[in-house]
Amino acid sequence: MWSSDLLRRGVLLLAVAGLLAACQVRPVYAPVGSPAAGGKPAMVTELASIAVEAQTDRVAQTLMNELIFQLRGGSALVTPKYRLHLILTTRVSDLAIRASEDIAVAKLVSLTTTYTLTEIATGRVVTSDNVYTTTSFDVTSQRYANVRSQQDAEDRAARAAAADIRLRLSSALIGKG
């Protein structure tokens, strides 16, 4: 009796080991053709071939830089297949007002980005859309702290918009192929 239990446990252990040997362990969101697997996935190459048009405004430059980093991961631009045109509108409004003094104690930064992805070879618009992000910041009696807080809120909004745009571009390029 004891030996048959040991034999059953041994067979069960071998079956479980066989099933586990067939499994692959990798991060859920890792690209399928990651460098560890010996190649670059097609989507990474497509995103890296998007040339982002230069911007002149501080917030627009922050968005442009963040997009370039998210699209290419810090690597150089490969031969550009697509051009990304951005139009930004930034608005700052009062969010909370101290009723006794009629002074704003919190403000809201609203960033609206209109983007258009165009195929360079044909001039065809691949996708075009609007992205709307908001962030808030507190207002104090110190002028420099308020300026810095507003810039930080604008930078956070630009980073959020860049992540949203990257996701939408990925979806559009997957649907294209």
UniProtKB/TrEMBL annotation:
Taxonomy, superkingdom: Bacteria
Full protein name: LPS-assembly lipoprotein
